[in-house]
Amino acid sequence: MAAVRALRSCNRSLVCLRQLGSCSRVRLLKASVPHKTHCGLLQQTHHRLLRTTSVLNGQIVQFKLSDIGEGITEVTVKDWYVKEGDTVSQFDSICEVQSDKASVTITSRYDGVVRKLHYNVDDTALVGKPLVDIETDALKDVAPEEDVVETPAVSHEEHTHQEIKGHKTLATPAVRRLAMENNIKLSEVVGSGKDGRILKEDILGFLAKQTGAILPPSPQMEITPPPPNLETLRQLQRDKAASIPVPLVKPIVFTGKDVTEPLKGFHKAMVKTMSAALKIPHFGYCDEVDMTNLVQLRKDLKSMSEARGVRLSFMPFFVKAASLGLMQFPILNSSLDENCQNITYKAAHNIGIAMDTTQGLIVPNVKNVQARSIFEIAAEINRLQSLGTTGQLGAGDLTGGTFTLSNIGSIGGTYAKPVILPPEVAIGAIGKMQVLPRFDSNGQVVKAQIINISWSADHRIIDGATMSRFSNLWKSYLENPSLMLLELK
């Protein structure tokens, strides 16, 4: 009978073990009450297995979608880079989301295993709600992340503040852990992020200075190779032209059914922006520009620019000429408050460029055009176009514009009626270039390269005379490019 009672006691202990082992949060590391069983070995094994199960199961952390700024409350999940069961580390890309302003790649703050994806592709994710569930190493991640040398413990928030020697340092827990693993004090690192936030790149750069490691050069610091000779350049251009694939016409699929889908991303942003634009009383002004001299100048500079890795179009000249005009007519680079009581004159010329993409109309802007050369503007436009094509433009590229140009002529059309993008007060649409007969100063008919420009302005604060004078000045810079040399700094 004693043997039977001992066996029953052992069975009850095994049942208890199974129930407790199924709970990932149970952590019985030390018995608080002695177990009165007839199997001492089972009691020790019981404790050991509970400890092991707790560590293996880990802790489930709900990774919430944090605030990405600009008042955005929801985003569309465009692509998942992980699936359930995948192992992720800090800084690994989890997914790409798109708001009505930009596309953002979300990265992991934890090391662990993805246990649940809360959304499917094209679903709408809400800021502050769980995005994924990650199972982390319980003993590693439950411990407070801290710089044991000089900092207090920090919480698992997306952006944490920390008092160090009388001032605050801003960094994510992942960045703090990277600093701790390399024995770096955050107070000695200069943050390059918003509000002085310390980024991963800042830690790596600081570490490189301390160890003498050589990091890959940034695009701005790359050494420009000497330009190839003319014959080599022509051969490269021919090879490049031959390698460009011929675009195929997308086959038409007729289903015979109506399709209804919600507005998302940039299309949703267009609805908001154009609805606000209807409140602005527009007036239009049109003119034509003789581009003959500028066409020749661009032809002379094109090969030199391409040798430096930058494609030179006419748009950098349009943008720079607009900035020079805004210097003389700053009211076109202003904004009007909602109550129409105050005008704010913008110091920076952040000139937007309308782009047609597969995701819809986007308008990134070139920052501080007034302080950039034409070559620098061309390089920045190349960057924006590359990111826009792949849908990788950030919120910083798409916000803060003060004036806009739209090169509708790159697709077709001579004149347009552009709509102002609030809170801006003016916009220009450039038509396609045409070879047309015109009279020269001697009254002779000559071949001229002509484009048409269509301006729209906010008639509440801008009158027709101001718009006309600005347009004439912009036109003079393009028809006589050498005049821009007098204004360039």
TrEMBL record:
GO terms under cellular component: cytosol; mitochondrial matrix
Subcellular location field: Mitochondrion matrix
Entry EC no(s): 2.3.1.-
Substrates-to-products reaction catalysed: N(6)-[(R)-dihydrolipoyl]-L-lysyl-[protein] + 2-methylpropanoyl-CoA = N(6)-[(R)-S(8)-2-methylpropanoyldihydrolipoyl]-L-lysyl-[protein] + CoA
A Pfam family matched in the record: E3_binding
Main location: mitochondrion
GO molecular function, one term: dihydrolipoamide branched chain acyltransferase activity
Keyword rRNA processing appears in the UniProt entry: no
Cofactors required: (R)-lipoate
Limits of the Peripheral subunit-binding (PSBD) domain: 170-207
InterPro entries per the UniProt record, alphabetical: 2-oxoA_DH_lipoyl-BS, 2-oxoacid_DH_actylTfrase, 2-oxoacid_DH_E2_comp, Biotin_lipoyl, CAT-like_dom_sf, E3-bd_dom_sf, PSBD, Single_hybrid_motif
UniProt keyword annotations, A-Z: Acetylation, Acyltransferase, Lipoyl, Mitochondrion, Phosphoprotein, Transferase, Transit peptide
UniProt domain Lipoyl-binding: residue ranges: 60-135
Family statement drawn from the similarity comment of this UniProt entry: Belongs to the 2-oxoacid dehydrogenase family.
Function: The branched-chain alpha-keto dehydrogenase complex catalyzes the overall conversion of alpha-keto acids to acyl-CoA and CO(2). It contains multiple copies of three enzymatic components: branched-chain alpha-keto acid decarboxylase (E1), lipoamide acyltransferase (E2) and lipoamide dehydrogenase (E3). Within this complex, the catalytic function of this enzyme is to accept, and to transfer to coenzyme A, acyl groups that are generated by the branched-chain alpha-keto acid decarboxylase component.
Protein name per its UniProtKB record: Dihydrolipoamide acetyltransferase component of pyruvate dehydrogenase complex
Organism: Hymenochirus boettgeri (Congo dwarf clawed frog)
